[in-house]
Every structure is written in structure tokens, then in C-alpha cells.
Amino acid sequence: MKGWAAFFFLGMTTLGAHAQTTLGLTLGTEHLDNGSPDWRETSIGLQHRFAPRHTAGVALTRTERFNLRDSQISANYALPAGERTVVSLDANASSTHRVLARHGGGATVQYEFAPAWLVHAGARTTRYADERVNQGLLMVEHYFSAFSASLGWRPARAFDSTAHSGELRGAYYYGERNSVGLILAGGKEAASIAGAVTLTSLRSAVVVGRHWLNRDWAVNYSLGRTRQGDFYSRNGISLGLQHTF
């Protein structure tokens, strides 16, 4: 799974149809059960909405894993390609790339094929110091009452081998813009372990949410556990604060 602080596919939803900007800060920490130092991550991001389904953003991230420190810049852009279709692009780069990727980029298409039913399809390529990882995505999402549910498949190609993982998401929306959700994932993925990329099994359960304090300020959070093959288990938490203006 790519980051616990990541939100559901519809991203940052806000009131009204006018243009607005969101500034956010997120702090996260993860404890490993194999005696390795805790992982830490700090991210600051700026997201602008030009119109409904038309957004652009940039983020700076500072990561510390296995006593190795990395910095990364990432960007995203989404725009409607019709009444039922949204195309999203993203890219990232790290000048240090000790544990993070050297650079990467991808694209996702979201299509509403029936009322309250969405399909997401995408591809991504990521270049680490010594290996390239190609990933795919196919996910179906459904909204009903105050809930949503989605089921996804994520294949990955590295070392001339293909790994597969599955993902199940559910969310409950309360109040006007608040949400809490559960993400379950399992299978095999390409992961960077102490600076080396390897194919490893994955089992993960994460609770994510956003709660608005008032019209302009919101708190984001995540709490979860990940088992990474025979290497370690991680217990993590992240907290974020965002301001819309």
C-alpha cells in the first residue's frame, strides 16, 4: 500500500464549487518489531482545486527509515475528461533515494459506468537505485447510503517476476464532509527494505479518517499494522492538520 496518509480515490472533497486551496501538514511514525529504529515521516502539501474534479498539488516529504534519511518531492494533477471520466497523473523524485525511489510516475483513469459505481484503472513505473518496478491497478468502487466499498487488484513486475496483491476498502461518511474508513490489503508486493528492493508478502490493516473542526480546518489520521514478509511487522500512526482557504 502506498502511504497510510493517502485518502480515498475522490481525494480532498470541499464545500462549494469555487476554486480553493488546501495546505496540509502530516506527521507519522511506525514501530518495527525486529529491533530496528522507528520509522518517521513528515510531509507538507499544497493542493488547489480549480473546479470540481479538476485539481493540482505538490508535496515535500522527509523520511527516516533504517537510520537512512531521504527527501522527496511529489506532484499530482487531475482533470475531467467528460461527464463520467477523470484522468489523474502523479510523479515523484528523490535526490537522495537511499530507501525511497529515485523517481516514479503514473496515471489513473476513473470512470462512472453506472450511478454510484466507479472503476479505476491505472499504471505506474518506479525507478529505485538498482531496480525498476512496474505496477498496475484495477479497482471497482460503489457508493450507497452513507457508505462506500471498493475492491482492487494491484499487480507488480520486478526482477522478471510478477507479484499480485488485493485490497478491500470501506468507508463511512458522517456529518457534511467527515469520513472514517478501513483498508485491508494482502498478497505480494515490491518493497524497499533497508535500501534494497525485494518481492515480499504483505498483510495490512489500516484505519484512516478525516474530521472537520470547522469550515476551514480539518484533522486527518491513520492507525494501522503491516506484516512485511518474514522481515518485520510495523505498527504506525499518523496525524495531520489541513487548512482550506
Describe this structure in words.
With 245 residues, the chain is mainly beta. It has one domain (21-244): Porin, CATH 2.40.160.40. 0% of the residues lie in helices and 73% in strands. The protein has no helices and 14 strands. The protein has a 14-stranded antiparallel barrel. Strand 10 and strand 11 (178-193) form a beta hairpin.
Labels describing this entry:
mainly beta; Porin; 14-stranded antiparallel β-barrel; 0% helix; disordered N terminus
Protein topology:
Blueprint: E1 20-32, E2 39-51, E3 54-65, E4 68-80, E5 85-93, E6 103-114, E7 117-127, E8 132-144, E9 147-158, E10 161-174, E11 178-193, E12 196-212, E13 217-228, E14 232-244
Antiparallel strand pairs: 1-2, 1-14, 2-3, 3-4, 4-5, 5-6, 6-7, 7-8, 8-9, 9-10, 10-11, 11-12, 12-13, 13-14
Approximate strand percentage: over 45%
* Fourth CATH level, the homologous superfamily: monomeric porin ompg
Q: Please, what is the average pLDDT?
A: 91
CATH fold-level label:
Porin
Cα end-to-end separation: 30 Å
Number of domains: 1
**Secondary structure tally, helices:** 0
Strand order, sheet with most strands: 1-2-3-4-5-6-7-8-9-10-11-12-13-14
CATH class identity: Mainly Beta
Low-confidence stretches: 1-15
Order of helices and strands: EEEEEEEEEEEEEE
User: How many strands?
Assistant: 14
Estimate the global geometry from the Cα principal axes: globular
Helical residue percent band: under 10%
Computed structural class: mainly beta
Taking all Cα atoms into account, the compactness measure Rg is 18 Å
Largest sheet report: 14 strands, antiparallel, barrel
The assigned CATH architecture is: Beta Barrel
